[in-house]
Amino acid sequence: MQTMAEAGNGIYQNAKHEFDYEPVIRTAMRDFGFPTQEAAENAMDAFLQWFSLLPLVEAGKGYVMLNSTVDEIFHSFLLNTAFYRSFCQRTLGGFVDHNPLDQPKPEMPIHDYAVYTVRLLQEQFGSSLNPLLQDWVTQVTQGSYRISCLGECPSSAVAMKHTGMARTPSGAPIIG
User: Fold this and answer.
1) pTM score of the predicted model
2) Which sequence spans correspond to the domains of the chain?
3) In whole angstroms, what is the distance from residue 42 CA to residue 39 CA?
4) Tens digit of pLDDT for each residue in 27-44?
5) Cβ-contact 131, 69 below 8 angstroms
6) Residue 25's closest CA among 17, 13, 7, 37?
7) Cα–Cα distance between 27 and 98 in angstroms, integer?
8) Around 113, how many Cα atoms within 13 Å sit in the side-chain half-sphere?
9) For residue 112, what are the contacts with CB-CB under 8 A and spacing of at least 6?
10) What angle do CA 163, 169, 170 make, to 5 degrees?
11) Closest to 117 (Cα-Cα) out of 161, 68, 76, 162
12) Element (H, E) at 93
């Protein structure tokens, strides 16, 4: 059985090398004003790091997307719906919905979600964390962030299938 870090990094590495993201990059440049292909590719890399950890999110925890260029890549991907659907299916075994948090419920611990997200990203990627996601760490530490959407994996069965990690009945990953 692999560790959480191995599982998240494995999904990231597979996703990074298995697909040609050119349609998403073109959409990002055309519709979201990315100044260069390199800037869009860097944001795509950050998105892949974020996305790859969805199956590792513990039950009851909120895993969020901060309002940033990474979110703009997510939206660029969503505009390429057939590609995005195929990517989700092949990467995680099911479609990952976009759940905007433009009006979070008062009982949602948004700050806790942001702290959990950046902690998970730091734990999984350490010094190889994309600089755009490292900016999230700074923003959350300073309290100068805005949440865009909530990320949720299609099911804990997906986590087992694609990461080799079993889950407890509450949905927490079993490491061993």
Assistant:
1) 0.84
2) 4-163
3) 5
4) 999 999 999 999 999 999
5) no
6) 37
7) 17
8) 22
9) 62
10) 90
11) 68
12) none
